[in-house]
Amino acid sequence: MDKESMLGIENLTKSYSGTIVLNRVSMEIKKGEIHALIGENGAGKSTLCKMIAGAVEPTEGTIVIRGTAYNRLTPKKAKEEGVTMVYQEFNLISEMTVYENLFVGKEIRKGIFTDKNKMMEMSRNIFREMGVDIDCTEKIKDISVAYCQLVEIAKALLEDSRLLILDEPTAPLTTKEIELLFRVLGKLKDRGISMIYISHRLEEIFQICDRITVLRDGNYIASLDTKGTTKEELIRLMIGRELSQEFPKRLLEAECDGTKTVLKVEGLTNGKLKNVSFELKQGEILGIAGLVGAGRTETARAIFGADTITEGEIYIKGKKVKVKSPLQAIRHGIGLIPEDRKRQGVMLWQSVSDNISLVVIQELAGRLLVNNKKEKALLDKEINMLNIKLQSVKQPVESLSGGNQQKVVLAKWLATKCDILIFDEPTRGIDVGAKKEIYDFLFRLKKEGKSVILISSEMSEILNLSDRILVMYEGRMTGELGYKDATQELVLRKASGM
Ligand SMILES: Nc1ncnc2c1ncn2[C@@H]1O[C@H](COP(=O)(O)OP(=O)(O)OP(=O)(O)O)[C@@H](O)[C@H]1O
Ligand SMILES: [Mg+2]
Q1: Is 403 near ligand 1, meaning CB less than 6 Å away?
Q2: Is the CB of 44 under 6 A from ligand 1?
Q3: Same domain, 311 and 183
Q4: What range does the domain containing 111 cover?
Q5: What average pLDDT does the chain have?
Q6: Of 114, 348, 414, 467, which alpha carbon lies 20 to 30 A from 445's?
Q7: pLDDT in tens, 104-125
Q8: What does the DSSP assignment read for 359-406?
Q9: How does it sit in the membrane (predicted)?
């Protein structure tokens, strides 16, 4: 092995009760490179990284860290070898300050007391080196997700990590925060730190990664230099075929009704929303654009009865209704597919079949929905269509890959009788091939005469899928555009309050 190698993986295999999820993968991470790991949902990316971080034990194979070979690692051993994985669910203690979190378990002491000043000073130095402006005395619960992530990275630096593993780090971040994160990663790279970077957003990979390794169905496919490859080639390697045209063709206006108003909200106001009014037509896909924090999710939650409104009215098919709880919303035919699947979408500990057999929704709706055979068949169809990858429907949802968990959430709602469906960031964490399936699906709903509210931070989705686009800024509606008039620039201007 050459000197330049940070990490070598040799024939690494993982199986769960006999099913192989990673099959004799070999690859190499060089010193000071940002190495992308890409592949469809369930390809084995997270599993591979967890083995490198010592959190999952390989079934077979070797991990070589700077020349030392291991057949199994523990999280402690991996850490000692300078490997740190930054998890989505952060390991920070929310009631403690930033600097206290950096020193948990390794507090610096002066006599019998902890040396607060010294720890604060060291913390400030680390963040200065990272180029991050943060108040180290703030509590974790008061800082944004983006900063939590940076605190995790700072912690790794303090522990002198040589290899950082970032699993979909940008998923919850705003554009500005992503820029900040990338600047930080650039600085770490200059210091010779290696990084493994997992993301479904290929643009990001072209922006910051030096090399790319592609996995497909647990198999190693290729490692390439970022320079010299293209998005199309990567997609082909990931899914094993060309992806025909990303967005489905628009339906002709004649094919969908578009005249009947199914939902009307007037003057919705609460702590986050200011006088939000709009109408949703039958068979319409209504896009809501805006920056993170603009009030899109809050609008969805208010309509779904998950948040209370202090003022405003909701009309469904012309009738004024009170929606005081999700239960009432579902009874009125409104479904919300939330962005935060971990907390609201599925019951992770339950099996896939329990989740999708509408148990959750039935509980919500007080057994309003009958779980008959027809619905079950419909559900199986959705699972098939969304191409959910699982070994068995009896598997707990938490043992599915991230993207497949998201698909379970979708499948669950799709089987309901709701005819107004609100999708909040439906493709977050979803691979390119499956995204296309979800787009096709939205068009199918439309064709069936259902109405969709689509909240998305991906501009191309908003522009290519919506019939009409509403733009929000600081809790208010700042614009409405027909799909023919909408451009990225116009939407962005309105989204930043211009
Ligand atoms: N504890 C477990 N028990 C059984 N199967 C598991 C377990 N953990 C992971 N798997 C399976 O291993 C496969 C690979 O999952 P992994 O999470 O590594 O995929 P991924 O590439 O990270 O996908 P995504 O992009 O969706 O996050 C999946 O089919 C998953 O269901
Ligand atoms: Mg994953």
Answers
A1: yes
A2: yes
A3: no
A4: 92-149
A5: 86
A6: 348
A7: 888 888 888 888 999 999 999 9
A8: HHHHHHTTS-S---HHHHHHHHHHHHHTT---S-TTSBGGGS-HHHHH
A9: Peripheral membrane protein
